[in-house]
Structures are given as C-alpha cells and as structure tokens.
Design a protein that fits this description.
Length: about 325
C-alpha cells in the first residue's frame, strides 16, 4: 500500500505542514497559541489535585501567555509568525490545560474574542482538551464556527490507551472516557486530533506499538500527535525522577519505536508531530542535545533509509 503523496513535498508519512500548504493553496499557515486561563478537573478538586504527574504547562507554553488579554496574545502570536516564518494565514490554537472546561457562554466569549482579530486571515480554530471535558453543547458551539467557514478541530489528550497507566499518572479519566468522547463526535463535522505520549512508565515496547491499532479503530480521527515522554521541572514526575531515575528513550530508541508504529497507522491520518518539545531551561530528561530541526531531520532520514512507510502494514478498511 502506498501512502498519499502530498503536493508540497514528500516524506514517508502524511505530515502536517504539507497538508496545510495543500489545503490552503500554498499559503503559509501557522498556529497562534492562546492561553485562555483554563484549569483542569484534576487540578481544581473536581476529580483530583496536583494535575497529571508529567505536566507543567510552563514547559511548552510561549511567553505570550503572560500578556494581559486574549487579544494581545493573538496579535503578538500573529506578529511573531509573520516576521519569523512569513505566515500568511493563522489557526487560533487554545492549548494550555483543558480549553473546554468552562460554561459554554464563557467559552463562546473567549473563542469569539480570539477569532474576531484579523478575521480575514484566520482560517481555523483548534481547541485542546481532555476527553472528559466534552459534551453535546460544547460540540454544537464548536460546530457553529465550522458553519461560518472556519476549519475547526478538537484535540483530545488521550496520552495512554491503558487505564493502569492513566491511574498512575493521576490523569483523572479513563480510556473509556476517550471512547465516549469519540462516540459523541462520531457524526460531528469537527476534525479530531489525538495526542499520545510514548514511553510512559510501565509500558513495554509491545504495549506502545498497539497505540496505532487503537487509533485506527476510530474513523473520525484525522490527525495525531506522537510525543516521547520528557521529564520537566515543576512536575510531580520530575521530583520522582530526580529521586529514582527510570529509563527514557534515547533518540535512536524512540526512532525505532516510530519505525514500528508508522507502518501500522492508517495512511489517511495526518501526523501533526512526531516528538515532544520543551523549553530547554525546563527540561530534566531526556536531553538529546539537538535542535528541533536536527531531531526532525534525523527521524525523517531514518524513516527513508529503512524504507518505513506510514500505513504499509495497515490491512483495515479505508473510509472515503
């Protein structure tokens, strides 16, 4: 089975930047990250306290989150993307914490505020959240932006497909919560992205490779983000790791895992990310000692050298 060839470059997998270039007729499209000041149900006591053991949102959120308003964050993000990357179109990305964890009327006010700025060049809305922070009313709200001509995706952090792992992470939700969210979205016009973490404590290589099979089950999944586990300062896991270090992927080991997962992954799914990023000052481990572009180039080169093709081992039915 050969994978889809995208018009703006060829790799051994469907990659997001080429997908955007094709979809928006060659325009440079960049995500503008917005911090809406949300929390999570396992931070505020609704389901627990302390948050997920691996989490410290300061490790992956840009400095613009410290600006006073959503408007300032959007303007700053657009200016930065335009100056540094020659961006022409923008996707507003509500990223830190659970960005549907509020009453619908409050959500609408925040989404509206972000989307009305330079609306001519805003082409999409991306909302990151947890599977247990989604209901029919929120889905309807997000679909209303789709009806206005925007591309809208909901990014669900599933992290692990194993309940024992989720419990050990103090995740506060189960894999069944994810399945319920997917059922809710089954007939929705929204796109769905799932976010996973590979290399969580207690998960074997065989367990990790099965992530592809689980993702493949859901036809509604359009995008995926694969991240390797990294340990950051300010997290519960960071404290535990300093006391009792445990094995983490080297770049070579992580690439080996990707070489097993990608052939099994449905070939129509677009991969938004293949590895994690953290502010270098916040990162405890693993320290690969390479820049983002160097990591990306290494993985891409290995996939090509080994002739690893996304979907080459997929034997399921393809949806049209």
């Amino acid at each position: 089975m050969s994978i889809k060839t995208l018009a703006y470059g060829e790799k051994n997998y469907n990659y997001y930047s080429a997908y955007l270039r094709e979809k928006y007729h060659g325009k440079r499209v960049y995500k503008v990250i917005v911090d809406g000041g949300f929390t999570c149900p396992n931070r505020d006591g609704s389901k627990g306290y302390g948050g997920c053991t691996y989490c410290n949102t300061d490790s992956f959120t840009p400095a613009s989150r410290n600006l006073d308003s959503i408007r300032e964050q959007v303007l700053h993000g657009m200016e930065n993307a335009t100056q540094n990357y020659k961006a022409e179109k923008f996707i507003i990305y509500f990223q830190p914490n659970s960005n549907t964890y509020a009453p619908v009327d409050e959500l609408k006010l925040m989404y509206d505020e972000a989307l009305k700025i330079n609306s001519e060049n805003i082409v999409g809305l991306s909302v990151g959240t947890r599977p247990d922070c989604l209901d029919a009313e929120i889905v309807t709200l997000l679909e209303s932006y789709k009806n206005k001509g925007l591309e809208v995706d909901i990014e669900l952090g599933i992290e692990s497909i194993y309940n024992e792992t989720l419990q050990n992470l103090n995740r506060g939700c189960t894999h069944e919560d994810f399945i319920s969210a997917m059922k809710l979205l089954e007939n929705s016009s929204l796109d769905v992205c799932v976010h996973t973490i590979l290399g969580l404590p207690g998960e074997t290589r065989e367990m990790i490779v099965k992530y592809a099979d689980e993702i493949n089950k859901f036809e509604k999944i359009n995008f995926v983000k694969f991240h390797h586990l990294h340990i950051v300062k300010g997290s519960i896991m960071g404290v535990k790791y300093k006391r009792e270090p445990f094995p983490l992927f080297t770049l070579e080991e992580y690439t080996d895992i990707l070489c097993e997962i990608l052939p099994k992954l449905r070939p129509d799914i677009v991969i938004q990310r293949l590895f994690a990023l953290s502010d270098v000052d916040m990162l405890i481990a693993p320290k690969w000692g390479l820049k983002k572009s160097q990591i990306q180039n290494y993985i891409d080169a290995e996939l090509e050298r080994r002739n690893i093709l996304q979907g080459s081992e997929y034997r399921g039915e393809m949806s049209v």
